[in-house]
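Here is an idea for our session: we take a single protein and study its fold together. To get us started, please write out a protein record for me. Start from the sequence, derive the backbone structure tokens from it, and show both lines together. Go ahead whenever you are ready, and we will take it from there:
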Amino acid sequence: MEFALNAPAKINLDATKRSPTPNDLDIVVRDERFNRETTPNRWWAGDAFGTAWHNALSATFPRGEAFFIEAVKAHREGAEPKLAEEIRAFVKQEINHTREHIAFNKLAENAGYDIKAIDQRVKEMLDLTKDRPAIANLAVTMALEHYTAMMAHEFLANPKHFENADPEVRDMWRWHSVEEVEHKGVAYDTWNHATKDWSDWQRWKVRSLVMVSVTGRFFKNRWKDSLNLLAQDGITGWKARWGLFKYLTVTPGVVRRIFPAWLAYFKPGFHPWDHDDRELIQKYEGEFADALMPAE
């Protein structure tokens, strides 16, 4: 693909010539386990809307994170040693996340929620990607990894998201969030490696268009899933829609609060580590020192 006729001259639209990923960043595999014996109330987040939103997210993670792993691994050949090591750590972290969200999803099912329809739809969507070029799957992964990083930052920075949650459920989401922040640059750096022969304009254009597409599908599907779960609690119609909208945009307002970070993705030269938020990781490590034991 060539965009030479339309490309602005001598404008660096991407970050391939530099990688703001910190040189001293360590991606630590925290082999933690949660929710094996937890029996929280049905509304573990303290209210129906937070519960529905997080259950809807979690229902997509086991298959989604397996997709992320394969998309990144498909482009590791020829990566510089530092990136190759980060990819290996990314894969290990995501494998653990998959395991823990399987356990969490069982917890939701034990509380009476039917999330099988969400899992089935994710399977059907991912089946459509099997014949797609591998680079397209990496572009989607990069966009969705930005979503997980944005929400992870918000979940760690704003205690309101989990202030009424079951303690062990809260710890699981915080653990997951820490590792999403920690490896937030891996898919992006892998993309830069895989597209090193592309023009800056082509790379910027593709990642921006993919993010717009991913955003539309992400919110359409999570909104639909959350309303389905709310209906299982007997909350339907305008009450369900308004309550979910208020939860997402007012208090605690995760969608409203991540909007600036979402917008930054379209900035020429953007990189996930333009914002170094490792202080959130350090805060977690200070509170949970025993979580630093590496995986065997």
Summary: The chain has one domain: 48-288.
